[in-house]
TrEMBL record, chains A, B:
One of its GO terms (molecular function) is DNA-binding transcription factor activity. Pfam families: LacI, Peripla_BP_3. Residues 2-56 form the HTH lacI-type domain. The keyword Transcription regulation applies. Gene3D superfamilies: 3.40.50.2300, lambda repressor-like DNA-binding domains (1.10.260.40). PANTHER family: LACI-RELATED TRANSCRIPTIONAL REPRESSOR, NTD BIOSYNTHESIS OPERON REGULATOR NTDR. Residues 3-46 form the HTH cro/C1-type domain. Keywords: DNA-binding, Transcription, Transcription regulation. This is Sugar metabolism regulatory protein.
Length: 336, 336
DNA sequence: TTGTAGGCGTTATCAC
DNA sequence: GTGATAACGCCTACAA
């Protein structure tokens, strides 16, 4: 493990000169620069991160928080972010929160201790007021989440319009008895809350009301997010006397579970029950009835936030700090 | 940011006493210990990693390398490892290699610079001889890969037997014209190589030979690993004059792609073409014909390697350094 | 049992 | 343009 003074010694200069060159600061003669560059490669030298961190220098590293990396939506998102970060020569560390505030705080602590220059939050567990305090230690970007703060770098899709379009599509096709699934624990909707799920619910309501319909409490399913959850949803639907004629799954995972279980229970999709997915993941093409779903531009979202964060880190002026990506319905076969 | 000397000052003791308490070393009076504990919580103090790293102390962090986090097999594996590491109070950082040697080396460099105490490699890109050199800086565990070195901590599934069982199952059901898919670039099989793919191929051959069959070069597909790859495989099969009657997909992803494309091309599974998956992921239950596949105990594998690594880090003596998990065929509907 | 002092590798400040 | 030197926060001999 060569150190900076090893390099200095070999190049016949002082450590400060080497340091200047490493961090390409001015006031260095080309001659010595060459000498040092030579010594560095000869020794295979690279600066020790830990020492830099102690000095409070940058780490060229970005942390990304996600709830669960096993959720394909997030693994794709992380992959996109990491790919772009890589191009900009930033390293990436992935932090799973498992929906726990403490894990999220761990990631934020990285900022405090200079382990990372920025954190991109693809899920938010703690109150924003708490999180915001960490921005004195480094940059915080928000991705796929909502924060009512015009200063933060934020990229997300237009969930309201997306869900509105999806619901409208079902309505236009003649469906009237719509079931609604959400990943959240309970539908705590109110007009003041700005978050992904409320936004989706808002879009759902807007479409419904255009048809003078009200949401049915009976047909609302909360806390569903996996394939297995989808299977359970369909079982409950199948056992109802008054069944919905369509179900808004909230994710392709859930939609896939619903369709698979429908198949085993011999319930015909879309004839007896239409299923609308969300995300448009590869999965949506391989289920028994390929999913009509709402396409999310995951890679564009990831690229955008990563580039914005990198820009800000490099001191570039950023014109728009918040970008909202459009969502659109992809028609396949799970809706008639 | 409270430092150790802030704590010392507040507690009215010296920094060394605080340090001893933090690292629960002997020779501390309970009275002072209480004082210090008090001061620590009052200040919200936590030791700065960077400073510890510079001293060469442990980081309580384990790096995990995977080729692509978007591959559900690996995201599940990582999740299992992280969960167990978390229980043992180790932090985890995920490093994607993207199949590139340089990215893998990055993870290994973490060892050198004390950023992590251990790295668990779930994919191996570089030569083992090169990798092994890094074990002077920290612990290296191997997961889901093969290394001919009795000293290394290693956990993987018995791919040979798994593939043998799967192939045998097809053979026993009367299939004789077996196609074979693999994720590797080309089938460079030889008896000396010990790796996951060779091992699988070995199992495939063993079963074939029991039926006096030879592998068909015509029906071997290399470099296939995604759903889209699977779709392409089916297209090629569909266009053949002499078609296989069964295909060993190598992964559930590929199997799902094959089945989806078969559906659009109106080719009946399993009547006209049987499909055997590998992994037994949730996906395998939602395709048009639920997959007959080979179950991999992903969580057990992840738990095992994480526990072994944690044990070794904590100086426990380890009885068996290599564990091989059994694989078994799960019968569903993609094979008649 | 406790405290003091030195050093880990780097960068920034100050002289020259 | 260049080079000493003092921090950064922590741990560990060594001394008391």
């Amino acid at each position: 493990m060569a150190t900076i003074s090893d390099v200095a010694k070999l190049a016949g200069v002082s450590v400060s000169t080497v340091s200047r060159i490493i961090n390409n600061k001015p006031h260095v003669s080309p001659r010595k620069a060459a000498l040092v560059a030579d010594a560095m490669t000869k020794l295979g030298y690279s600066p020790l991160q830990a020492a830099r961190q102690m000095r409070g220098s940058g780490s060229q590293t970005i942390a990304v928080t996600v709830p669960y990396i096993t959720n394909p939506f997030f693994s794709e998102l992380v992959a996109a972010i990491e790919r772009t970060a890589d191009e900009r020569s930033y390293k990436t560390v992935i932090v799973q929160t498992f929906g726990q505030k403490s894990h999220e705080l761990n990631a934020l602590e990285f900022l405090k201790t200079n382990q990372v220059d920025a954190v991109i939050m693809c899920a938010i567990e703690n109150d924003w007021d708490l999180i915001k305090q960490y921005s004195q230690y480094g940059l915080i970007g928000v991705c796929n989440e909502y924060v009512a703060d015009p200063d933060v770098l934020m990229v997300h899709a237009d969930q309201e319009s997306g869900m509105y379009a999806g619901t409208k599509y079902l309505l236009n096709r003649g469906y009237r008895k719509l079931a609604f699934c959400t990943g959240q624990q309970d539908i705590r909707f109110n007009d003041n809350i700005e978050d992904l799920n409320s936004d989706r619910y808002r879009g759902y309501l807007r479409a419904l009301r255009e048809f003078d319909l009200e949401p049915s409490v009976e047909w609302q399913f909360t806390d569903v997010s996996t394939i297995a959850d989808g299977q359970r949803v369909l079982q409950r639907i199948a056992s109802m006397k008054d069944r919905p004629d369509a179900v808004i799954a909230g994710s392709d995972q859930v939609a896939a579970g619903i369709i698979a279980e429908a198949q085993t229970l011999q319930l015909k999709v879309p004839q007896e029950l239409a299923v609308l997915g969300f995300d448009d993941q590869p999965l949506s093409q391989v289920v028994a009835q390929p999913l009509t779903t709402i396409h999310q531009p995951i890679h564009e979202i990831g690229d955008a936030i990563a580039n914005m964060v990198a820009d800000e880190l490099e001191g570039d002026t950023i014109d728009t700090r918040q970008v909202i990506m459009p969502l659109s319905v992809v028609v396949r076969q799970s809706v008639a």
